[in-house]
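ingest -> validate -> predict -> emit
validate: passed (alphabet ok, no gaps, 97 aa)
predict: started
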Amino acid sequence: MSKPIEYILLTNNTILIGKVSFEGDIIDIEDPYLMQSNGTEVLMFPFLESILKQKLSTFRTNNINVLSTIPVDKNDIMDTYIKAITNIEIPEKKIVV
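emit:
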């Protein structure tokens, strides 16, 4: 069974997107990306990559650090996230008449 892709709001107001699983008091976020807004658009960056100098495959934290998780609906953000973690382009659905 695949893990759901969710937005994760941490107690320090950091917003992540990733594949979420819970194990007791621990939350694992696979392929975590940091989400930020510059006022006009949403930006996504691999979480901690600029500090660690490598892509983080899983971020594990105590669920006391998590305020909320919100399921991601099928939208442009999800498409961008999937493209970022898989390098697969999500085709646009068009009706041809």
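The domain at 5-86 is CATH 2.30.30.100 (SH3 type barrels.).
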